[in-house]
Design a protein that fits this description.
By secondary structure, the protein is an alpha/beta fold. The protein is 23% helix and 30% strand. It has helices spanning 20-23, 146-155, 170-177, 189-201, 216-226, 251-265, 284-298, and strands at 27-28, 40-43, 46-47, 54-60, 63-68, 71-76, 95-99, 105-109, 117-121, 124-128, 160-164, 181-186, 209-213, 232-235, 240-242, 248-250, 272-277, 301-309, 318-327. Strands 1, 2, 3, 11, 12, 13, 14, 17, 18 and 19 form a 10-stranded mixed β-sheet that branches. α5 packs parallel to α6 (251-265). It is globular, with a radius of gyration of 19 Å. It starts with 19 loop residues before the first helix and ends with a strand.
Length: 328
């Protein structure tokens, strides 16, 4: 699916029961009645993991400033409505992405840049570069889930993992590295080739990964007819996009049917589902509701929250999307 990520921050209005979790920044919600009596729901915001090749530097005035390798980039962030704390740093940006009011945007480059370069994050080597959508080929906020995905897969001693809207494959490589057999699905052939290059650079060229260029909805329907089941599911759907044959994806129209079909692909001994989203109007409570059927069917734990970028010398954090994740 040709991605077009949105960005929104909707405040949460949730009911919590106090406990020791609150002291750790992890709040446990009251257990709902009915089928979820033996389950639990957690609410927790998560920050991106560390890397020597990435740094969140500042945000504010609808922008975000980050370092990818040796280069600084100034990109839009509509939720950053506060004043910038380090305004002089922004002058060092090698690239500035200007968003158009009619959609899309363009880069203004102040330095000559290589066509792409490698970044190290944990044990992975990932190619990054400025793209036409203002992305860099990696969503740093998603790294907050890497240790969790590794733990789920290792607890299950591998298994089959389906990764939809898989982009350049960082999470695919995390899952494969942990021992899973991965079905990597993205609708853009060039993006899948980018993901393959990341696998090779990370020493995972021969890992059990199936690289599939297909529309996510169509692929999931076909998997249902085949009867294949998965032990882990990861999806990061865009707000809207197009498949390889012009199939339209609009998250408000197509997300719920997709999740219903993904439930059919969930193995009886499945271990986890991870759902991330950057679309305007979404919230942790809404994300939780979308994954509630997994708890109702399988029991286990359901967690939701915001994905954040932060730095140790500032109380200000940048909301960079939302997530919900189920496991048992």
């Amino acid at each position: 699916m040709q991605p077009c990520k949105g960005a929104g921050f909707v405040p949460r209005i949730l009911a919590y029961s106090p406990g020791k979790e609150a002291a750790r920044g992890e709040r446990k919600a009251q257990t709902p009645a009915g089928d979820m009596k033996s389950s639990q729901w957690l609410s927790k915001d998560l920050a991106a993991g560390p890397s020597p090749d990435y740094e969140y530097l500042d945000s504010g005035e609808e922008g975000r400033l980050e370092r990818f390798g040796a280069y600084l980039f100034d990109r839009p962030s509509p939720v950053a409505l506060w004043r910038r704390k380090h305004p002089t740093l922004w002058k060092n940006a090698a690239g500035i992405y200007h968003r158009s009011r009619t959609g899309g945007g363009h880069w203004e480059f102040r330095r000559n840049l290589p066509s792409q370069w490698l970044m190290r994050w944990d044990d992975l080597a990932l190619h990054v570069k400025p793209t036409g959508f203002g992305h860099m080929g990696l969503f740093p906020e998603h790294t907050c889930h890497w240790p969790w995905v590794r733990e789920r897969i290792r607890e299950a001693d591998g298994g089959r993992v389906l990764h939809l809207f898989a982009y350049t494959g960082a999470m695919t490589l995390v899952a494969a590295q942990a021992g899973a057999e991965v079905w990597h699905v993205d609708a853009v052939r060039d993006v899948n080739e980018w993901a393959r290059r990341n696998a090779e650079a990370s020493g995972l060229k021969e890992a059990p990964i199936r690289w599939i260029t297909d529309d996510a909805t169509r692929f999931v329907a076909r998997e249902g007819r085949r009867g294949r089941r998965y032990h882990g599911i990861v999806l990061d759907p865009p707000s809207y996009g197009k498949g390889p044959e012009g199939e339209k994806w609009i998250i408000e129209d197509h997300l719920l049917p997709l999740l219903e079909r993904l439930m059919e692909l969930t193995a009886n001994d499945a271990r986890f589902v991870l759902f991330t989203c950057h679309s305007l109007g979404f919230s942790p409570a809404l994300m939780r509701n979308f994954l509630a059927p997994w708890v109702e069917r399988f029991g286990g734990t359901l967690e939701s929250g915001a994905m954040l970028l932060n730095r140790p010398d500032s109380f200000i954090v940048l909301p960079a999307g939302f997530y919900a994740r189920w496991w048992r």
